[in-house]
Amino acid sequence: MSANEQSAYARAGVDIEAGDKAVQLMKQWISRTERSEVIGGIGGFAGLFDASKIARYHHPVLATSTDGVGTKVAIAQAMDVHDTIGFDLMGMLVDDLVVTGAEPLWVTDYIACGKVVPEKIASIVKGIADACVVAGCALLGGEVAEHPGLLGPDEYDVAGATTGVVEHDDMLGPDRVRSGDVAVAMASSGLHANGYSLVRKVLLTDAGWSLDREVPELGRALGAELLEPTRVYALDILALIEAVEVHAMSHITGGGLANNLTRVVPAGLAVRIDRATWQPPSIFRLVQEVGAISQPDIEATLNQGVGMVALLPADRAEDAVALLARRGIPAWVCGEVVSAADPGLPGSVELVGRHQ
Questions:
Q1: Residues 187, 189, 192, 195: is their CA dihedral positive or negative?
Q2: Which of 120, 162, 222, 254 keeps 20 to 30 A from 8, CA to CA?
Q3: Contacts (Cβ under 8 Å, ≥6 apart) of 80
Q4: Euclidean distance between the first and final Cα of the chain, in Å?
Q5: pTM of this structure
Q6: Which residue range or ranges hold the PurM-like C-terminal domain (predicted)?
Q7: Mapping DSSP to helix (H, G, I), strand (E, B) and coil, where does residue 203 land?
Q8: Number of Cβ within a 10 Å radius of residue 155
Q9: CA-to-CA distance for 38 and 248, rounded, in angstroms?
Q10: C-alpha 261: how far from its chain's center?
């Protein structure tokens, strides 16, 4: 078909044929995520999931979470590596949901791009599907939207939503937390997908570093470090909850350790976190030093090497750390729950000591 014979939509910059090809390429990856409850395949108007599993619960509570990846997509685009950003999306989705005790059931995704390049879209979806397998949930549906004139030809953004279920009596939360509980930290894989506006400004814009710069402190190129996928904890957390009494959990994302952990600390209690129990990976110190960022500021932005925190009885901490280690998650006791001086005060988190 000549340019003159193209449809008006194609002349406006939307390539329907490219979109159809992208769907065909991504089918092989989506099929790997199917659970027995999934009905039909992709291509329909809606994803279908057999809810009889939920009916087996005595008092089922549905949990849902929606999120995106933020400006980390700019690193993927600059490096032309697109099959890891799906782990960042999934980490932001299912790990927000699993801290309630809920099992993630399915995920839907949304990819907006300036131009549909089928192979690129399929690569993004491959990463999402791979992460779904790690999280044990189905990639039930999604949408690819071409936005010429709004996004550049090489630009895209990704977002998604997830739904899970938990038995009402098994929900985790602040109401279970007690004085004398301990905080068990789980190591992050790096920056995860938060704080990239700060990181990019400090290292790429202000310092003028290139993504292919070899950084001795990191042991690899800067771009490889910044693109390190988010750790997806969902199945590990579910295994922990099954084996050990857990009272509450916090996913450490935007806002850092104290701000996120505070969300599960009830009034009258405080969590005292000892920085001396761990040493943040080099990327955190690098950002802080190059950007001349204060300790409070860096801790209010980046996860500092902690991706998840569980609050649980002190006598189960050793079992929790051992279970997580067997599953490949470095973990350690990082603090304790104490009574606040004033029982009427809101729950709080205090960081004390200095990092190793």
A1: positive
A2: 120
A3: none
A4: 65
A5: 0.90
A6: 178-341
A7: helix
A8: 15
A9: 30
A10: 16
Please name the residue that has the structure tokens 């990639």. Answer: 139
CA angle 57, 98, 335 (to 5 degrees): 125
Paired strand residues for 41:
none
3-state secondary structure 155-182: CEEEEEEEEEEEEHHHCCCHHHCCCCCE
The Cα 76–Cα 90 span in angstroms is 16
Q: How far apart are CA 247 and CA 100, in angstroms?
A: 10
Question: In the chain, what's the furthest Cα-to-Cα distance?
Answer: 77
Burial class (CB in 10 A: 0-12, 13-18, 19+), 263: middle
Distance between CA atoms of 324 and 185, rounded to whole angstroms? 10
